[in-house]
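G., before I forget:
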Amino acid sequence: MTIVSTIRHNRIISVVLLTLLATAVPLAAGAQGTTVPASTTWTSLKGDVFGQKAVEPANGIITIEAPKRAEDAALVPIDLHFKTDATSGRIKTVTLIVDENPSPVAAVFKFGKDAGVTHLATRLRVNAYSYVRAIAETEDGKLHMTETFVKASGGCSAPALKNQDEAVASLGKMKLRVFPSSAPGSEPMTRATEMQLMIRHPNNSGLQMDQITRYYIPAHFIQGLTVSQGDRLIMSMEGGISISEDPNFRFEFDAKPGEDVKVEAADTEGKKFQNEWPLQSSSL
Amino acid sequence: MIHPTRRSVLKTGAFFTCCCLGQFSLARAQSAGRVALPVTEFEDGVFAFSGIPEMMSANNRGEICNVGFIVGEEAVAVVDSGGSVAEGRALIASIRAVSDKPIRYLINTHMHPDHIFGNAAFEDTGATVVGHQSLPRALASRGDYYLRSFRESLGASLMADVKIIPPTKLIAGEETLDLGKRQLTLKAWKPAHTDNDLTVFDQQSQALFTGDLCFIDHLPTMDGSLRGWMEQLETLKTINAKLAVPGHGPVPSKWPEALEVERRYFETLARDIRKSIADGVPMAEAVKTAAQSERPNWRLFDEYNERNATAAFAELEWE
């Protein structure tokens, strides 16, 4: 199932969800003391995303880290680490899900065959007390799941844009940072390179009800993103509205010194953004 | 003039509790059915209630920010309606305790629930709701979330009457409102605390309602632009006010000294975050240490600092 159809499908669900949330949230909050609640939402969501396929516990193949409380509901940092397991093979895709968000599938990442991605960090919108889960599909076709529970933020923090004019004015601007591996004694041409890709985009959720007009605010978000080096794919993403404004990805991969890093992105309004950066061996 | 509490509390309280003027106190106001908000008349015709520095809860009725009103020859203008309809109604009771003039304007200084959840109390007063030109858009994208998420902290009964009521009179740049021989200068700011901050300056008394552009005691919260806020502090402090009603903090406060504590916090936060970004520290780690040196100086530091640091990080990494 593609993410677009997931979102469309979930748009219908979300109308129901929004109504349910009003009552579901306090219940979840009440049930949640020192322990986390049962994954009831996931139980009903699983079939929509993965059909009848079995989803196994990750057993270290993929791990997830997130703050226990979403300090800023619009910007919740999520860290994923991947480990290649000899039996299952490398991780082909990772699906990131925020159970209680109106459109739960945040993103589906695909990794290039020899990209060697071992770590990926991004930022999510988290609307309510929710499980955030990552499901890795390995080469043998099996699904491995890990999850963490995030409490909603207190106070007036909302999963919405802070500076709406700025978000639109600088739409599509990109920034790439390469973090030198400066660990003492490490080889200057170490294979794993850490990079951070930033794209200016409001990544507007289409599921916020305008209380005045009673219409939903039109969605406008990055739906496709590809990062490649030379002609080899590092990773691609089919994105949804749970990825924070100004989508931000920090990842580690096997870089080939001297080859350009190329990024292509497209949003739901058909706008395309691309950029290229030379990757000097000196920056590795 | 700076110690007006007794005089104005008497004035407000007199209407409802004329039998116990001498002993009137905040505690009494709270136990006496909480009819009127205990407001202070710190300048002639300028009244303000001092919010409780806590998170919004059923217990404090959402009364956490400073709200107030200004009485002119013909009419009254209200600055913010409070964090619940109950608070909005109590504010109206305070107004009626000192004036029977019509409430011409309800000015919302920005989008946050503690300042606007009382709007529905003013629906029958005929007051025109006034706000920053970007306030309707901000309420459109957040109103629904606010209504859902505050159900838990405020409780269903306080939330039952709360409605998102956007302004119909929008301010861009500067505009003057007339209350009859009393002019208020409203100024719409560029993104700072939020992207819809508005200040209200009473020309007669030179009193300034800063909205949440000024926090004292209660840690500032970042929901707009840290850089924009820091830059505009320069313009803000040139406003020729004598006294200010900050969004949160003592009523009244000396101007422009009122801005100094938050300026120091912003500078510390920006410096710490910029260093983390330059050193390649990931966001999740950087926000845990940023501005911790400011911790002893504020209330609600643990509730809001990490969130401010998160927002600051996302903004400053584009520099």
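Residues 135-154 of chain B form the longest helix (20 residues). Chain B is about 35% helix and 20% strand.

More on Monday.
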